[in-house]
Amino acid sequence: MARYFFNPVTLSYESKPVSKGVKYLRAIVMLIVALALVFFYFWLYTTVFKLDLPKTAILKHRHAQWESRVAVLQRNLDVYERTLSGIEQRDDDVYRSIYGLSPIPEEIKGLDEEEYRLYHQMDAQGANAELKEVVLKMNRLSHRVYLRSKGLDELKTIVADAGDMFSCVPSVPPIIPNYDNFRISSAFGYRIDPVYGGRRMHQGMDFSMAIGNPVFSTGDGVVEEVNFQFRGYGNEIVIDHGYGYKTRYAHLNTVDVTEGMKVKRGEKIGTVGNTGKSTAPHLHYEVMRMGAKVNPYNFMDVKMPVEEYEAMIAQVRESIQKDKMLSTSELLKRGGLSDD
Predict the structure, then answer these.
(1) Is the Cβ–Cβ distance between 289 and 245 less than 8 Å?
(2) In terms of pLDDT, which residue wins out, 228 or 135?
């Protein structure tokens, strides 16, 4: 680029070449001015007007979208967790309780090692707290759903044998419910001990009645124990009904069963007595569920019609007699003594 100046001698404009140094200097100055203007623009845009750069605005928009999605997912997971908690409570307190199964232990619902691994992995990837909480909650819910699914599979197997279970659960009184012949002398709960005094827990029900009155099994089962002793429960029978249920019949006068013997609901197993730690003739009756002694009153109707109870006894007696006849017939067949 040339510079022009007026020559007074020739009275004309003449060009004068610009040196390279000047050209470079001008270029540098123009670049500095341009950079200064750009810097000033960005400073004015971001600091004075507090506006985001286009790329920053796009990233913030995308971040807001993901935060919104995570928030929606968090709310949905909260709903699912409340729903699952309700299912777990009904399963533990109702379904599993009905079928004599223990609740699923809390300690196996946790995922301590898994959570630690996930936390470490997400921290390494720079995940924020909200995302980590959502991922861990999803993992816990998945684990709880899996456990509940396995529990329902177990229930399905039990329900297939529900008919057998209902006949095994101790659900009738252990004596004929004729109020002319008995009275409930002591209920389940704390009482004053009739022998040693002092307030003690009574873990069964006492039916006060005359010696020799029949005692019946309150559900199908197998005789687990038969004990004859001068102290404590005296002559006693313990029946294992399966499905987590057992019953005890104590202070008996006579015992009509032996250990390992199968019995049916309504089958006579002994008679009322006054043996062991007893101050008067009575039957001490206990119900045990999953190893814990529970109130027997909740498993029976002591106002059950006498006719209905006696009909049950007659039906059981007839069934036992028929089984004995079939067994005898089978023995005869095996011995080659049958007419067939």
Answers:
(1) yes
(2) 228
Strands 292-294 and 12-17 turn out to be: unpaired
Structural contact between residues 340 and 333, judged by C-beta atoms closer than 8 angstroms: yes
DSSP assignment of 113-176 equals HHHHHHHHHHHHTT--HHHHHHHHHHHHHHHHHHHHHHHHHHHHHHHHTHHHHHHHS--S-SS-
pLDDT tens-digit series, residues 312-331: 999 999 988 887 776 666 65
pLDDT of 340 higher than 50: no
DSSP states along 217-285: -SSSEEEEEEE--SSTT-SEEEEEEETTEEEEEESEEEE---TT-EE-TT-EEEEEB--SS-SSSEEEE
273: CB partners within 8 A, 6+ apart:
211, 234, 235, 251, 252, 253, 254, 281
In angstroms, the CA 270 to CA 217 distance is 9
For 99-142, how does the pLDDT look when each residue is reduced to its tens digit (9 = 90+)? 666 677 765 655 556 666 766 677 777 777 777 778 878 888 88
Q: How far apart are CA 27 and CA 92, in angstroms?
A: 83
pTM over 0.85: no
In the block, which residue shows the tokens 């067949």?
333
Using CA atoms in the order 137, 139, 145, 150, what is the torsion angle rounded to 10 degrees?
A: -150
Residue 58 zone, left/alpha/beta (φ > 0; ψ -120 to 50; rest): alpha
Tokens 């003449």, located at residue = 14
8 A C-beta contact, residue 191 and residue 202: yes
